[in-house]
Amino acid sequence: EKCGTLIKLSNNNKTAERRRPLDEFNNGVVMTNRPLRDNEMFEIRIDKLVDKWSGSIEIGVTTHNPNSLEYPATMTNLQSGTIMMSGCGILTNGKGTRREYCEFSLDELQEGDHIGLTRKSNSALHFFINGIDQGVATPLTPPVVYGVVDLYGMAVKVTIVHNNNHSDRLRRNNAILRALSPEGALRRAAPAAQAEPERLLFHPNCGQKAAITHEGRTALRPHATDDFNHGVVLSSRALRDGEVFQGPG
Predict the structure, then answer these.
(1) How far apart are CA 154 and CA 105, in angstroms?
(2) Tens of pLDDT along 133-153?
(3) Superkingdom of this entry's organism (predicted)?
(4) What does the alpha-carbon distance between residue 33 and residue 68 come to, in Å, rounded to a whole number?
């Protein structure tokens, strides 16, 4: 219940919203009511954004107890015990430690997208975007950490979610990657008459346990250690006569 000065909690403290989002861009820090357990997923859904400020949501963990913390205007002001994902990088105690942690930027996420994190039992911290594990953000995380969200800039409202079905979120990831890709930007900018011949890629509509990344060139099962099937992927268009459909093997 203790949170940033502009935060309003609702929905049995599962939803947080920043007041006056068009007038104020910070003082929107919220934390979990208890420390995270090993391998526990802390996941939120973005419910509302505003089209104004240049930055957006940040999420991470901190060793600071919410009951005794003097809440900062933004979590990047804390110089101890805090690891945050901001944009596509990682900040540790307010300083950049990994500039390009993953392909996604939190600043590009839209309403309905999910962001999660978990501290593994081996102390590694992983972030998840729409259900896809982005890999190790830092190998050594303190044993007692709270989840923290900074409703900064464009980010106005989020809700804690508990959902193990990742299929819809995986498809959202595919759409985000296509939109952010240089090829996607070229298609949006160039007239149809100047478009190059359509490349052979994977179709974004795929099996519920599959995901398409790298501009449609890569297919993967993000949760390969948990699931062994539902990983079917198809080409994005029909094959041409004499065309080779081939992977590295």
Answers:
(1) 13
(2) 999 999 999 999 999 999 999
(3) Eukaryota
(4) 12
Which residue spans of the chain are classified as CATH 2.60.120.920? 5-166
Q: Tell me, which fold does domain 5-166 have in CATH?
A: Jelly Rolls (2.60.120)
pLDDT tens digits, 220-243: 887 776 667 888 999 989 998 888
Q: How far is CA 234 from CA 76, 182, 245, in A?
A: 43, 22, 11
Closest C-alpha among 54, 142, 137, 61 to residue 97: 137
Q: How far apart are CA 115 and CA 240, in angstroms?
A: 39
Tokens of 36: 């995270």
Question: Given the structure tokens 């804390």, which residue do they identify?
Answer: 78
Q: How many CB atoms lie within 10 A of CB 59?
A: 23
The bridge status of strand 114-119 relative to strand 125-129 is antiparallel
Q: Are 165 and 154 in contact (CB under 8 A)?
A: no
Q: What pTM value is reported for the model?
A: 0.70
Residue given tokens 């982005």 in the structure block: 134
